[in-house]
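In practice, a research group might receive sequence data for several interacting partners and want a quick structural hypothesis before committing to experiments. The following worked case mirrors that situation: the sequences arrive first, and a predicted assembly follows.
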Amino acid sequence: MSDARIEAYARALTEIASAEGNLDAVEKELYVVARAVESNDQLRTTLTDESIPAVRRQAVVEALVGSASNTTAQLIGLVVGSGRGRDLPAIIDKIVKRASNAQNKEVAEVRSAVALSADQQSRLAAALERATGKSVNLKVVVDPSFLGGLIATVGDEVIDGSVRTRLDQVKSRL
Amino acid sequence: MRFLHLLASEDPSQTHHWLLPETAEIIYGGISSLLIFAALYKFALPAAKKGLAARTERIQKELDNAASTRSAAESEAANIRKAVGDVASERARLLSEADQQAAALLAEGRVRITAEVADLEAKAEADIAASRSRSSDELRAQIAQIASVAAQNAVAATLNDGTQQELIEGFISSVGGAR
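A structural hypothesis for the assembly, expressed as tokens:
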């Protein structure tokens, strides 16, 4: 799908979430769903397979979002039902970016090998704001393949403190 | 009449001389001989001459044929001698050409084989060098792979909860102190 179409979907879904009055909660839930779709090949294949009836794909979405809000489930169902499941992560990333920009914030994606506590997330957000000079909307993605450490991406800036990257550097030097 | 009387008066079985015949006998014999010689001269002599001439002509013809045959044989012999000479010279020429061609082929083959051997040696040396380099690279890659896996396993074994929290806190501190 073209960027213009992705942008159009993101704008429309953001407006719907804003109209429902729960944009913050919806964009957090959508972000979790987007990372799940990105990391799970079978889920991504199921959501993008045109041979599977739309009703069944939407049922998969409802099972996926579980306890999420109805707005989140309906927005995802709308995208998947219209045959845009392949672009769901990109649309959600646009929604998150639009929601953050609406609050004059920059999306700070942090990938960690283990989950961060609320206190750690708060201190990390503060540290990133000091480092970048921007207000950040922190999004934490747990990725065990990192082994340990963190990678933070704020806009075009990447701060890499992961063990995986250091091991790759050692391997490259070897 | 006298003659008849004479004939009747004498005995025809008696002669006057033991060696000489009677006169009449001589006459008759002479006349008969003349007639015979005349007939021979008239009829036999031309036939004999003709036969002799034919024989002479046949012999001459045979002699001519023999001479012609001899001449042809000598010519044929000359041709054969010439052909033998030509064959010998042709044989010598062919042998000479064959020798030249063989020498040229041998020289060309030596040059070609020398060049091929040089190419093969160069290629073999390049292959050996490439194989040595490849083996060295593969060995280095395997060592790096093994070392990387070993390092990853060693790091993973040491990454407990405490270490993870230390890494997180260290990251937060380094990012917060970066500015």
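Before designing any experiment, note the following. The helical segments of chain A are 3-20, 23-39, 41-48, 54-65, 70-81, 88-102, 118-132, 163-173. Chain A touches chain B at residues 112-114, 116, 120, 123-124, 126-128, 130-131, 133, 147-150, 152, 159, 161, 163, 167, 170-171, 174 (CB under 8 Å).
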